[in-house]
């Protein structure tokens, strides 16, 4: 695919980073070969960088916690900061710099020095790809090499326009016996699901966008409100006549299961859900609800009533051409374990009731 974005190249890079293999990102004649810290090991690192020259790329959110000087240069918590290589910055120290959970256990030796980011756009794209791969956003990088993929390939991987319907089947569920499941496949191999409940009667459907939460949906976690919201949504849609539940595979507001559980571990240390994400180096909410708009379009529904407390869902659907004619609050009773989480959503992320 010369000259055009290739989602397959980005998917191969995700796979390689997950396996601990170095990958080269390039654009406009510049290139960076990157080694993901989370999946790397000292022996692989030695092969990657025998001269011990490679600097470390971190997110600004993480660099702020480490009190590294030039984080102000990065505009967002997920933007890149480059840490100069020093003799004491070996693979183990790189791991300690990458993972905030180790802060209490690892006395940081230092000092570490932030230096100008050599390739800011490539660095930002790498950190974004770490999020997609569900890895800590931290890499050792080496300039040059033949590019395996480009930043535009990552955008192509996430482009909602490439979503297609893969299969439909009848699926009676607790709370809604008359339901059909519709499975969607995206360009990156990601799978999303819609549950259409009841029989379409021409009226705008009652719709719920539910983001995957393994701990809440499956294990019954009391730390969030996802499980009860999911069950209540199915019941409310069934009770309304007809509607659609979109089950979006955006675990942890788009940072993946393991990174969400890292955020939980920071919450055990006292940080709230917003600060935990920032300290890990991620946006507070990394989800793209454009995918939901595309799913609704493929289901032939451009006018809906939406069950949510999150104005970002309403705004994004509207920006993608879905007419949200009504927002209906979807609030469930708090419990002692999720009280603070719900208060944070109200006070810091603009959730309305
Ligand atoms: N990163 C992170 N994700 C979380 C946390 N708690 C829940 N989630 C994820 O948040 C998503 C659910 O989002 P919520 O913010 O609860 O709800 P919402 O979908 O934005 O808004 P509503 O429509 O009003 O419910 C799921 O993907 C959960 O896995 C947390 O502490 N950290
Ligand atoms: Zn949850």
Automatic annotation (TrEMBL):
It comes from the Bacteria. GTP binds at residues 208-212, 229, 251-253, 273, 308, 313. Binds 1 zinc ion per subunit. It is an enzyme of class 3 (hydrolase). Keywords: GTP-binding, Hydrolase, Metal-binding, Nucleotide-binding, Riboflavin biosynthesis, Zinc. The active site is at residues 285, 287. It holds the Pfam family GTP_cyclohydro2. It catalyses: GTP + 4 H2O = 2,5-diamino-6-hydroxy-4-(5-phosphoribosylamino)-pyrimidine + formate + 2 phosphate + 3 H(+). Zn(2+) binds at residues 213, 224, 226. NCBIfam families: PRK00393.1, ribA. This is GTP cyclohydrolase-2. The gene is ribA. Residues 168-328 form the GTP cyclohydrolase II domain. Its cofactor is Zn(2+). Its EC number is 3.5.4.25. Catalyzes the conversion of GTP to 2,5-diamino-6-ribosylamino-4(3H)-pyrimidinone 5'-phosphate (DARP), formate and pyrophosphate. Pathway: Cofactor biosynthesis; riboflavin biosynthesis; 5-amino-6-(D-ribitylamino)uracil from GTP: step 1/4.
């Amino acid at each position: 695919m010369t000259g055009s974005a290739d989602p397959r190249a980005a998917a191969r890079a995700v796979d390689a980073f997950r396996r601990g293999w170095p990958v080269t990102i390039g654009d406009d004649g510049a290139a960076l070969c990157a080694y993901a810290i989370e999946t790397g090991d000292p022996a692989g690192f030695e092969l990657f960088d025998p001269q011990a020259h490679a600097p470390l790329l971190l997110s600004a959110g993480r660099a702020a916690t480490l009190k590294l000087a030039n984080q102000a240069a990065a505009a967002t918590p997920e933007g890149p900061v480059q840490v100069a290589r020093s003799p004491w910055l070996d693979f183990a120290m790189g791991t300690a710099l990458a993972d905030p959970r180790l802060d209490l256990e690892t006395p940081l030796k230092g000092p570490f020095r932030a230096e100008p980011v050599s390739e800011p756009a490539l660095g930002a794209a790498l950190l974004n790809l770490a999020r997609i791969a569900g890895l800590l956003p931290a890499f050792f990088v080496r300039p040059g090499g033949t590019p395996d993929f480009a930043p535009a390939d990552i955008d192509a991987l996430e482009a909602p326009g490439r979503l297609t319907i893969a299969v439909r089947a009848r699926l009676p569920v607790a709370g809604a016996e008359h339901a059909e499941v519709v499975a969607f496949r995206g360009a990156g191999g990601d799978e999303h699901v819609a549950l259409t409940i009841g029989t379409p009667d021409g009226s705008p459907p009652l719709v719920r966008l539910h983001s995957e939460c393994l701990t809440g949906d499956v294990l019954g976690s009391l730390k969030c409100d996802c499980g009860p919201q999911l069950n209540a949504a199915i019941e409310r849609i069934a009770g309304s006549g007809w509607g659609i539940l979109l089950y979006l595979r955006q675990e942890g507001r788009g940072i993946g299961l393991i990174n969400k559980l890292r955020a939980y571990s920071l919450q055990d240390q006292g940080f709230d859900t917003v600060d935990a994400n920032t300290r890990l180096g991620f946006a507070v909410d990394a989800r793209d609800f454009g995918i939901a708009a595309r799913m609704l379009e493929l289901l032939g529904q451009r006018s809906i009533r939406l069950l949510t407390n999150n104005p970002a869902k309403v705004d994004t659907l509207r920006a993608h051409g879905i007419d949200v004619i009504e927002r209906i609050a979807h609030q469930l009773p708090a419990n002692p374990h999720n009280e603070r989480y719900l208060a944070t959503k109200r006070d810091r992320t603009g959730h309305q009731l």
